Amino acid sequence: MQDTELLRYSRHILLDDIGIEGQTRILQGHALVIGAGGLGSPAAMYLACAGVGHITLVDHDTVDLTNLQRQIAHTTASVGHPKVDSAAQTLQALNPQIAVTALAVRADAQLLDQLVAKADVVLDCCDNFITRHAVNAACVRHKTPLVSGAAIQFDGQISVYDPRSPESPCYACVFPAEGGFEEARCATMGVFAPLVGIIGAMQAAEALKLLAGIGRSLAGRLLMLDGRSMEWTEVRMPRHQLCSVCGTI
Fold first, then answer.
1. Vertex 247, ends 146 and 233: CA angle to 5°?
2. Which residue is catalytic, options 126, 173, 186, 246?
3. Which pLDDT score, from 0 to 100, does residue 186 have?
4. Which of 24, 131, 152, 229 is spaced 20 to 30 Å from 245 by Cα?
5. DSSP code of residue 191
6. How far apart (Å, rounded) are the C-alpha atoms in residues 166 and 243?
7. β-strand 146-152 against 54-58: which pairing, if any?
8. Separation CA 26–CA 85 (nearest Å)
9. What's the confidence (pLDDT) of residue 48?
10. Global pTM?
11. Helix (H, G, I), strand (E, B) or coil at 149
12. What is the model's pLDDT at position 53?
């Protein structure tokens, strides 16, 4: 680790749980972030500041004026530009020592299969169930830990799905594709601006813990936040033995 890196990451290195070894693992890590919006903005920004060596951003959308209420990686000047390009500029400005790959494409199953295979951790920061299930399937197939977050109105949730652990459920165990969950969109239901920052920052924290090999992840636990009262509820989640995605691995 170079002198500039020792100085930049000194507050991590001072932590006994991280130290030089943990920070080195972070520097060598590759995080795949699906979605560069409300959740992806704070998540990716914290990963960049913390020194994750390679961050890949995937989002097919462009910045809209309505995004600026909560999507902090973007500015007024970014309106009309691809979100991944705007976010990549922000990440590089925060930390020019890291590598950022920006992919302005929709995350379909074929692309995810290629990208997840190269990643050490995946952050699901998207806003639709089809993509979430495609991300989960790729993570299960490649045994890559998945940090999943969601936020709508005043309600947020976060969990880790780690296919490396035989006890950990996958996303489909908890939210099966055939479960008939109703899609909730910010455009029609609204979202409390700081809520995505809270959940996105927690996604970054879980990803950094996984990369550094420290602490206990949220695997097997779903945290749900009521933003009106700022109260957390924890639900334990076992692996579903008959799950169509991970039940046979």
1. 50
2. 186
3. 67
4. 152
5. B
6. 13
7. unpaired
8. 23
9. 98
10. 0.95
11. strand
12. 97
Least confident of 7-16, 94-103, 176-185, 219-228: 176-185
Q: Which residues contact 209 (CB under 8 A, 6 or more apart)?
A: 215, 217
Cα 215 from chain centroid? Answer: 18
Burial 180-213 (b: 16+ CB within 10 A, else e): eeeebebeeeebbeebbbbbbbbbbbbbbbbbbe
| More reliable by pLDDT, 178 or 207 | 207
Q: Which range (22-26, 119-123, 245-249) has the least confidence? A: 245-249
Angle (deg, nearest 10), helices 193-212 and 40-50? 40
The runs of H, that is alpha helices, within 155-234 are: 171-174, 186-189, 193-212
pLDDT of residue 38 exceeding 70: yes
In contact, 42 and 90? CB cutoff 8 Å: no
186's tokens: 């910010």
Which of 210, 158, 161, 207 shows the shortest CA–CA distance to 48?
207
Q: Does domain 3-236 have CATH number 3.40.50.720?
A: yes
